[in-house]
Design goal:
Elements (H helix, E strand, L loop, with lengths): L1 H4 L5 H8 L3 H11 L4 E3 L2 E3 L2 H9 L8 H7 L1
Antiparallel strand pairs: 1-2
Amino acid sequence: MTELEDRWLSVGDICKYLGVSNDTVYRWIEKHSMPAHRVGRLWKFKKDEVDGWVKAGGADSDGAAQNNNEE
């Protein structure tokens, strides 16, 4: 089971895990230093790195102001 928990996650996987859209993840990578690694043309993520980034407030700077603009 440790193998699955430590695997690299795709954009789709991390979107499902965090409950956000692809656009949000790409915006966080570009503007908010979300921990992501380029593997060829794909972005890959380590769950523990993303968890640490979220806990440190990395996603906070993209908060309600952005969401209100999307509606």
